[in-house]
Amino acid sequence: MLDYSADGGVAQITIADVRLLSKHDIVAAKDLRDAIWEANDDNDVKVIVLRSDAHDFSPRVTAKPDDNALRNFTAFQDAYYGPHGLYQSVCYPKKVVVLEVQGECAGAGTLLMLYSDIVVASSDSTFRTPADDLPASNTIFPILIMGLHRAKAWNLAGRPLSAQDAEAWGVVNYVVEREGLRAKTAECAAKIARMPLDAITSTKMGFNAVADSSGASEDFALSAFYAASRHSLS
Amino acid sequence: MSRFSKRFHAQDGAEYILVDKDPAAGIGTITLARPEKLNALTVEMREYLNESLWRLEVDDDVRVVILKAQGRAFTAGHDLAEERTWNKRPPGKKRIGMTENTMYFQDILGGKVGYASSLRHFSKVLIGQVNGFAFGGGFSMVACACDILVIAEEASVGSPQVRFTGLGSGPWQSVGYRAGKWIGSSGEPMTGALAHELGLAYVTCPRTQLEETTLQLAAEIAQRTLNDVLFLKARFNAAEALMGRGRSGEGGGGFTQRPDEDEPNFWRTVGEQGLKAGLDKAYSAAPRVNKVLANSELPQFQAGGAGREHTAEERMRDRPRDR
User: Fold this and answer.
1) Tell me, what CATH number does A74's domain have?
2) Do A153 and B148 touch (CB under 8 A)?
3) Domain for residue A6, yes or no?
4) A66 part of a folded domain
5) Each residue of B261-311: pLDDT tens digit?
6) What is the pTM of this model?
7) Sign of the four-CA dihedral B183, B188, B191, B197
8) Residue B31: helix, strand or coil by DSSP?
9) Which of residues 188-247 of B touch A (CB under 8 A)?
10) What is the β-pairing status of strands B64-69 and B27-32?
11) What tens digit of pLDDT does each residue of A72-93 get?
């Protein structure tokens, strides 16, 4: 499911198929979460890079809210949205999470993009709102990242965001041609890895506190409720 | 019996608030129709707008609502001459009572069941079609409350009233921390193009294409099912609540009633000589307003007081003595 390596202060996690996360696959979520936890707990690691070798980082999966996941709230919440879940593990580690995106990015891929700290994208990337496919997704982060009106327009109009607009809106940090993507990500990760570990931890704890004081944790806590509500409206 | 029926009748606002819908398209339309007064909102208009929003919320034919305006302005905000009347000290009283103040600023305006709250918490998609001037409450309470703004490049929007009232936290979430602080600190207006650049407006286009562009976007969104729309909007309304939006607004009425000598001076001048004179007298940033508005169709501010701070002597001379 994934490949993990760590060297020079940078942990690299390559996800084989992000679409499994969009389908609420419990095992896939726990594998990725465990890998992030391992990097988070390793004092030799300062940066966690998430990527996929697929042509498109996260193609859209048009599955509707997962009946199985909703039947078992505890497993669903625990694997994905709860305090021990995948997405809060991406949001709240004490290390810097750098995401590399190429091509289509939808569903769980867009959530990983919204919850990561730094995003490097190829110029042919597109970002589809997660709200249509994953109703449990957190709404606070889009508002914090792009501002209330842009977040609303992105979600309500449903038009995918181009890499260029994403850069202009402050959604991604760098946009480069596909051929230069890996090198740009490595450059970012190396730069961050030169920072003292305590400085990284302090900065991350500060940003995490800002997210929490903005209601991010409360919105995560309501995730299963949101999913169930959407399901009941179908 | 309707709300506030001992004071006024919301139905009196129906002449200036036109409500329509296209059930086949799933689109409702609210048109501000008082162009001769730049669509300034009277109390009756605000309450009728409030009631119209409530009706559209429960109308299953409607998934998207376009809020637009007739004439060259979107809305100049609250009717200032009327606001002066509501703010008037009752005969024999030393000051306006807190209950009266709360009725105006909370119950009618920005409180939980006031019209501004109904705009902000609307359960369906609300698109603001901003054709021109959106000023004061017309900017912060109406335009900023819309989910998505389609704005004419030539439009001019802003909050010069921050001189008296301060600015709530709402615009910060839309234009960012720095730009929000600048708006709140300077009262300077923005062009439509700048509003788009800062992220407040989703689309900007020449005024001649505004209607068509807005309708196209509304039709696109109206392709969603009613449940889709209700769910997505409920998520944003919940997120805004979690983020604490509205907390500063709830206290706004109290803040507004600080006995700043500028404020009654402003209302009095507006009541006696009109909006232009009030702004000329009270708004020291007028030259910059003129710069931004240079290419608009709006009247320019030209009074002698523009461009400089009033002297202490002038302030004392102009200080209202009857309040």
Assistant:
1) 3.90.226.10
2) yes
3) yes
4) yes
5) 455 566 667 677 776 676 666 554 444 444 444 444 443 333 333 334 444
6) 0.83
7) negative
8) strand
9) 199-202, 217, 220-221, 224, 227-236, 238-240, 242-244
10) parallel
11) 777 888 899 999 999 999 999 9
